[in-house]
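Page 37, continued from 36.
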């Protein structure tokens, strides 16, 4: 969070010596506050003042990184309570739990299942980010072997959960220094795990459902282990949402450093639907990482979809390139559907056609990434813009029938579009889900 020029000025020597290139210390402070100068330009600032300013200008929530064999995941450093105030920056990490009590074959099978948890939605691949290895066996050697196996099979960054600091140490050593997992010890093993985190420069998760108690612990630990995460443990959902909201508010609104860390949530349920619902709520309400105990694809995709929606930037509509798209291998007699270049609109149409194995063309009209009804209401999806798009993409060169299908919600455009473009205008279904049956039953080239 930025400091004001006056706050910076208070920490300067106030000699106006001009060595920084500015006529006064105040002028220099104003430039630093505007981000146009660095503190290093003043050679006379004391170490204490420099430390004060650096600490005060640090983000209100720590960015925590977990490093795997191939990639890293960064969580935290969020700046707003509400997505529409700006945007949420670092998407919640979604982890799948793997127990070391399972046999090697079972662990490998679970890793294979985790690797398959990748889905294609609105033009983007969404997938699980982490594997969380749990030392349920109580055996340090088994735990280290399981961690190594999971790391090699999934290539994902890891969360290591054990009540035993010795087991955590063994697993960290087995993984090698290039891999930086998040350590989750029990409270009894916290001091030893903190020593390990300090010596290996690893992130550490501290568990306590009481925020005051948690703040007391992080205040002591953060000097040696700067990359901390918070966890309330297993508490009822309402309490969990309260914990997530209160810790985020304390960090962002009160600038309360002891709680300025991302939060990890465990999500358990005998019913995968319960996992999906609870994890999605935690994603929406500020969790930095959610650890799921299910690998049911339909439950995991629900959580990943919720995350994808929440972590898109509301200031930038998610859009596809405005152009003519082929779905399948369309011929000159296959239908031409019109929609907008809002990703969700385009992929809804494309998804229905692909799932029904229908060959067609889609013209995505440039509406600055807004949906059909929004664009129509804003007069961006009108007979003129659609006719212009038809002309620009030279649609008449690839179809013989000279017919377009417009979304049922904007049937009102049909007469105007026919006049403007000279094309025959057919009114399609209101929802994309109705497109396959419409084409099968009503389309005649
Ligand atoms: S170099 Fe430092 S002390 Fe000198 S004018 Fe600039 S800010 Fe002030």
């Amino acid at each position: 969070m930025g400091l004001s020029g006056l706050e910076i000025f208070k920490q300067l020597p106030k000699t106006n010596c001009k060595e920084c290139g500015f006529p006064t210390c105040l002028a220099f402070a104003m430039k630093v506050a505007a981000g146009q100068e660095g503190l290093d330009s003043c050679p006379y600032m004391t170490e204490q003042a420099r430390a004060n300013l650096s600490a005060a200008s640090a983000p209100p929530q720590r960015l925590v990184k977990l490093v795997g064999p191939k990639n890293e995941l960064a969580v935290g450093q969020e700046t707003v309570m509400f997505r529409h105030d700006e945007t949420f920056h670092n998407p919640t990490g979604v982890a799948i739990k793997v127990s070391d009590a399972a046999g090697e074959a079972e662990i490998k099978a679970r890793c294979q299942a985790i690797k398959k948890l990748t889905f294609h939605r609105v033009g983007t691949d969404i997938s699980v980010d982490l594997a969380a290895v749990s030392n349920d066996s109580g055996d340090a050697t088994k735990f280290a072997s399981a961690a190594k196996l999971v790391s090699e099979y999934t290539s994902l960054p890891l969360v290591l959960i054990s009540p035993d600091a010795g087991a955590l140490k063994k697993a960290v050593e087995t993984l090698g220094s290039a891999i930086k997992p998040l350590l989750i010890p029990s409270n009894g093993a916290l001091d030893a795990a903190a020593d390990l985190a300090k010596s290996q420069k690893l992130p550490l998760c501290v568990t306590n459902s009481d925020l005051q108690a948690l703040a007391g612990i992080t205040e002591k630990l953060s000097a040696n282990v700067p990359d901390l995460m918070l966890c309330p443990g297993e508490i009822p959902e309402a309490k969990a949402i309260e914990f997530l909201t209160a810790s985020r508010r304390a960090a962002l609104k009160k600038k309360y450093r002891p709680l300025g860390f991302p939060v990890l949530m465990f999500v358990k349920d005998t019913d995968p639907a319960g996992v999906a619902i609870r994890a999605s709520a935690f994603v929406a309400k500020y969790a930095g990482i959610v650890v799921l105990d299910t690998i049911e694809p339909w439950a995991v995709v629900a959580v990943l979809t919720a995350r994808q929606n929440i972590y898109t930037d509301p200031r930038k509509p998610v859009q596809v390139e405005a152009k003519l798209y082929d779905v399948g291998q369309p011929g000159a007699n296959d239908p031409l559907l019109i929609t907008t270049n809002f990703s969700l609109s385009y992929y809804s149409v494309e998804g229905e056609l692909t799932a029904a194995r229908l060959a067609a063309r889609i013209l995505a009209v440039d509406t600055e990434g807004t949906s059909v009804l929004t664009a129509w209401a804003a007069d961006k999806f009108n007979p003129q813009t659609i006719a212009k798009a038809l002309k620009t993409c030279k649609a008449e060169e690839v179809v013989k029938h000279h017919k377009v299908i417009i979304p049922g919600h904007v049937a009102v455009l049909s007469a105007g579009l026919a006049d403007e473009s000279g094309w025959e205008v057919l009114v399609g279904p209101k929802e994309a889900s109705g497109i396959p049956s419409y084409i099968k039953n009503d389309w005649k080239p």
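The mean pLDDT is 94. Flag for discussion at group meeting. The CA atoms of residues 95 and 130 lie 4 Å apart.
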